[in-house]
Amino acid sequence: MEQHTLAAPITQAGVGLHSGVTTQVRILPDEPSSGRYFVRVDLPDMPIIPAQIAAVNHTVLSTQLGKGEVYVRTVEHLLAALSGMGVNNARIEIDGSEVPLLDGSAEVWTANIAEVGLVSQTIDNQEPLAIKQPIWVYQEDAFVCALPAPETRFSYGIDFDLPAIGNQWYSWSPKAELEDGSGSFAAEIAPARTFGLLHQIEHLQKTGLIKGGSLDNALVCGPQGWLNPPLRFANEPVRHKILDLVGDLSLLGNFPVAHFLAYKASHNLHIQLAKKILDLGFCEKSVACFP
Q: pTM for the complete prediction?
């Protein structure tokens, strides 16, 4: 079986969504089976935080990984880009506590990965495990589940009172990629930007969140429609939810073959499902990515 790492380093800098602080990220190639992990290069001894479910310690409006008092926040877009583009092994050096939001999507990351390319790494054969029975996590009418399926697929539904969003469903499979690149993670999922609701912004800011959010890095929707059109897809919000789901589930270490289905879910529910899958023994220490 092959794994992949980057052919050359990648560097990006930008503002964190919640902290409002500018940080720089440098992603470096690494050895086979080393996995994806963060290194806080701004701190003494440069502590390492693995991109694993066991390291998740906060899931309010983003996914945060931590080890002791050290943490890295809003990791989901970057991890989705790495797993979606097939990068198994990467050392992610960051000089602060939050990954830059950039334009609110994973498009910059996927473009950077495509530009430098990948290097193949041979490891002992590790076949992906398959979900054999439905696994569910829910809260009121919101849920996320993993269903037995012949191939890996991600489907998501959202429902908002605002007419510009309304009820949206989208389904995507890594096997949908065609020779021209259409259907790929980079084309169909990565460009979808994070979004917020106008009536919630003031409250979130008062609670110390979204300090770095702006119309340049997030879509904002109000009763009269989008404040910063045009959208990249008619259903960009629900595609972004799949982006978040891919990033969160990449923390499993290995995507089991399953149909992942979610409705009105959250980072918290995504992580609860991942923990349940891990507890049931459906994942190994190999690193989740496509293909």
A: 0.95
Whether the per-residue pLDDT at 144 is higher than 50: the answer is yes
Task: Tell which wins on pLDDT, 290 or 239.
Answer: 239
DSSP string, 157-226: EEE-SSTTT-EEEEEE-GGG--TTSTTSHHHHTTTPPPEEEHHHHHHHHHTT--TT--TTTSEEEETTEE
Query: How many angstroms separate the CA atoms of 227 and 170, rounded?
Result: 23
Specify the amino acid at residue 124. Answer: D
Residue 285: pLDDT above 50? no
Can you read off the two tokens belonging to residue 245? 């789901």
Check if 267 is active-site: yes
Question: Strand, helix or coil at 113?
Answer: helix
The residue annotated as part of the active site, out of 18, 240, 259, 267, is: 267
Question: Residue type for 6, please?
Answer: L
Tens of pLDDT, residues 10-21:
999 999 999 999
Residues 166-177 have pLDDT tens digits of 999 999 999 887
Do β-strands 64-67 and 167-172 pair in parallel, antiparallel, or remain unpaired?
unpaired
Q: What is the DSSP string of 235-285?
A: THHHHHHHHHHHHHHGGGSSPPB-EEEEES--HHHHHHHHHHHHHTT---S
Q: Nearest 5°: CA angle at 137, between 258 and 265?
A: 90
